[in-house]
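Postdoc handover notes: sequence design on the structure in folder B. Input tokens:
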């Protein structure tokens, strides 16, 4: 089990709050609040993959229909009790969840073969159409019992309606009868004790016989049930009792049906709650621009461009409140090989603790199946135990000082930490005598290293910095700090220790320069020398960073030049193809002209009754001329092809370069440059393969999905001849959908169709935008627009083809 103290100080509860706010239903929010990091690596990897599948599904189909979900498990448990009868409102909740089950199955149906992990959850959701229909027929939206619940209930209510009208007619006659006008207090019919009565004055006995059911507060009005309506009121009361009994029977029947299906419904309810949690994970990942990390088990950590989730939330709140944009500065944390202990130094308020908490919290998030706000190349190790000692933790109730509280927590860590633990220590060696604190801090780091664990510690103690510098399994790091603005830069430089800047910060915050100068004189010479050395190291590091920036700028410039070269090469190839086509047309024209000439000679010979031999001789001349011209044509084209092949084989392919494999009509990435035989290793969707260099074309970002200006359609085996008037692209990735749409439009053009519909769904709009970009470039498309409401609205695009 994960250490509760570490979960608290790393603020994992705040992440759970953010997660719960994204859930669509109360049980989903409750599950998010209870989320804990897993201590089993296979479970962690599966959970991260489930979150990835949910993100991809939402991107294609929008959010799943989970709003309105309630936890039916308590109701299912009650239905199993002997003689239990659920209320109408409770059964209506059951009906709503069963309706959601059907909607969810329909929602997932197009993706059942794409997302295998999510399929397990959706397969557990078993709709119950008969029970759902019976509940819908019996209960209204507000939980009222409908007349359609049973034939007997309908008849009882109809009989009661007829009888009420009969009673009202009788009483209406009494109200307006001249004989009773003197005793009628008010001409209206009302109910008292579930019986219809009329209001009369106290002297009614002499004029109107009946039973007093009630009187007004003043006593001046009596509510009398006339003798003529007593029997009818009695019959109406019996009808009401029978109606209540019939309603009870209907509810009992529905509860019994629910009981019979409870064992099938329960797994589906649990699956829906779990799916809501997965939706919350996906939504939170999108909100934080998070990525799925690679999970390792060797203790190595490689966090790149990592951002603290609570800083992201703070920046969001600031943007919403004041409109002021605030960016969270990412940091890189490398740990585990060859060093297992990292000592972070730098000034107070410089970001040391933020770096410590970022590593701890992102590790907890990944182990809970959450994607983390970091680069997709980030790697995090699985740690069965994470221990953290962070911040001011003075315990007043136990009369412990801050130092004593830290030592108590450290004692617990040293009792339980092992070679698979991650230990995070803030302000190591502080809170007591500097020499004793440093010695204790060094001893603790040495013990953690001896046990084989991974640890990060922050400190101000120079002795601990020096020990980390000389130890082969430890490494110093410092946080960057802007001394002019007194603001942390939140960048972590691994490899050099940092300065505390205590005297510089004191002077910036208002301490007099003479006092600061006096303090500097009081510092020991070796401390001043150490501080001076640190300053020179940091200046050298800054120079190295500046040189690295220049190198990166030169690399970018070289990359742009390479793209320009590839573009020019592509344009030259297109020009060569045009020239080749022109040459081919000239040869064909020459050949046709020669054929016409020879055929004219033959006709002339026949017109003059030439001999068979002369006609045959003329035909031989024609055949010979035709062969010569065809041979010339082949030689021209072969020469052009040889030039083209030589030009392609001379291209140097860079590793990671995007290319177009012409024979396979697929994009790929170059893994290795051409060998001595001109073969290039390329990664495509189906795997790696080696292809001739002449089969490759460079692909730039500006032409990532090229549309050939020539109609290209090669029918695949088993493909239907009949072209449908629409193409469903929902469930496909962006690249797959664009390729499928291009092939489909080629087929449409060959079939002579003028208008078709591409169905891409609404979702996040990524697929729709990709299709629009392709349609703008496609040479066979005349125009396109979003479909009308009855044809799919924003979920489909109508395409008109050129005639």
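Designed sequence:
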């Amino acid at each position: 089990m994960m250490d509760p103290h570490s979960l608290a100080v790393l603020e994992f509860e705040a992440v759970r709050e953010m997660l719960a706010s994204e859930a669509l239903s109360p049980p989903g929010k409750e599950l998010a609040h209870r989320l804990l990091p897993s201590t089993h690596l296979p479970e962690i990897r599966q959970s991260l993959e489930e979150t990835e599948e949910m993100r991809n599904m939402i991107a294609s189909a929008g959010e799943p229909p989970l709003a309105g979900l309630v936890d039916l498990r308590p109701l299912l448990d009650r239905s199993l009790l002997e003689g239990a009868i659920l209320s109408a409102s409770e059964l209506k909740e059951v009906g709503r969840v069963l309706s959601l089950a059907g909607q969810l199955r329909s929602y997932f149906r197009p993706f059942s073969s794409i997302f295998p992990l999510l399929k397990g959850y959706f397969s557990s959701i078993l709709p119950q159409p008969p029970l759902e229909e019976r509940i819908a027929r019996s209960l209204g939206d507000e939980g009222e019992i409908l007349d359609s619940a049973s034939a007997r209930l309908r008849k009882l209510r109809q009989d009661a309606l007829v009888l009420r009208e009969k009673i009202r007619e009788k009483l209406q006659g009494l109200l307006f009868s001249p004989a009773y006008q003197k005793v009628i207090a008010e001409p209206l019919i009302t109910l008292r004790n579930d019986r219809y009565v009329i209001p009369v004055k106290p002297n009614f006995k002499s004029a109107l016989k009946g039973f007093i059911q009630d009187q007004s507060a003043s006593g001046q009005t009596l509510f009398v049930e006339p003798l003529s309506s007593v029997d009818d009121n009695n019959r109406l009361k019996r009808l009401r009792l029978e109606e209540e009994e019939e309603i009870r029977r209907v509810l009992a029947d529905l509860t019994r049906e629910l009981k019979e299906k409870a064992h099938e419904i329960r797994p589906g309810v649990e699956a829906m709650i779990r799916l809501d949690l997965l939706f919350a994970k996906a939504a939170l990942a999108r909100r934080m621009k998070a990525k799925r990390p690679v999970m390792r088990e060797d203790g190595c950590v490689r966090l790149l461009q990592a951002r603290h989730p609570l800083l992201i939330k703070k920046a969001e709140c600031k943007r919403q409140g004041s409109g002021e944009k605030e960016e969270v500065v990412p940091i890189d944390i490398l740990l585990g090989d060859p060093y297992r202990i990292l000592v972070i130094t730098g000034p107070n308020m410089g970001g040391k603790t933020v770096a410590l908490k970022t590593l701890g919290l992102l590790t907890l998030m990944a182990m809970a199946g959450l994607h983390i706000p970091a680069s997709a190349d980030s790697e995090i190790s699985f740690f069965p135990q994470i221990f953290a000692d962070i911040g001011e933790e003075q315990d007043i109730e136990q009369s412990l000082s801050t130092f004593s509280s830290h030592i108590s927590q450290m004692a617990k860590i040293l009792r339980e930490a092992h070679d698979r633990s991650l230990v995070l220590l803030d302000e190591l060696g502080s809170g007591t005598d500097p020499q004793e604190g440093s010695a204790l801090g060094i001893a603790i780091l040495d013990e953690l290293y001896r046990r084989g664990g991974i640890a990060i510690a922050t400190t101000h103690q120079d002795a601990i910095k020096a020990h980390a510098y000389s130890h082969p399994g430890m490494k110093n790091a410092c946080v960057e700090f802007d001394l002019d603005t007194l603001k942390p830069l939140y960048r972590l430089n691994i490899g050099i220790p940092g300065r505390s800047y205590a005297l510089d910060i004191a002077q910036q915050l208002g301490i007099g320069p003479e006092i600061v100068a006096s303090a500097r004189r009081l510092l020991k010479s070796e401390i001043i020398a150490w501080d001076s050395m640190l300053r020179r190291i940091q200046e050298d590091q800054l120079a190295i960073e500046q040189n690295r920036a220049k190198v990166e700028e030169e690399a970018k410039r070289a990359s742009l030049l390479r793209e320009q070269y590839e573009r020019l090469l592509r344009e030259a190839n297109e020009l060569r193809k045009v020239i080749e086509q022109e040459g081919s047309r000239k040869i064909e024209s020459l050949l046709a002209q020669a054929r016409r000439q020879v055929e004219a000679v033959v006709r002339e010979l026949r017109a003059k009754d030439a001999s068979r031999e002369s006609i045959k001789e003329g035909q031989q001349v024609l055949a010979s001329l035709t062969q010569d011209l065809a041979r010339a044509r082949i030689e021209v084209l072969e020469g052009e092809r040889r030039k083209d092949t030589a030009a392609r084989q001379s291209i140097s392919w860079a590793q990671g370069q995007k290319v177009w494999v012409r024979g396979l009509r697929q994009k790929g990435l170059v893994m290795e440059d051409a060998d001595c035989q001109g073969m290039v290793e390329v990664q495509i969707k189906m795997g790696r393969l080696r292809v001739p260099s002449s089969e490759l074309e460079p692909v730039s970002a500006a032409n990532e999905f090229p549309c050939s200006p020539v109609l290209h359609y090669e029918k695949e085996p088993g493909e239907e001849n009949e072209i449908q008037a629409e193409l469903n692209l929902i469930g496909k990735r962006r690249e797959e959908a664009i390729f499928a749409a291009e092939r489909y439009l080629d087929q449409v053009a060959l079939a002579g169709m003028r208008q078709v519909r591409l169905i891409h769904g609404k979702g996040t709009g990524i697929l729709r935008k990709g299709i629009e970009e392709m349609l703008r470039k496609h040479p066979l498309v005349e125009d396109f627009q979003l479909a009308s409401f009855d044809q799919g609205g924003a979920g489909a695009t109508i395409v008109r083809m050129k005639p």
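Context for whoever picks this up: Confidence is low (pLDDT under 50) at residues 394-400, 705-721. Don't rerun without checking with the PI first.
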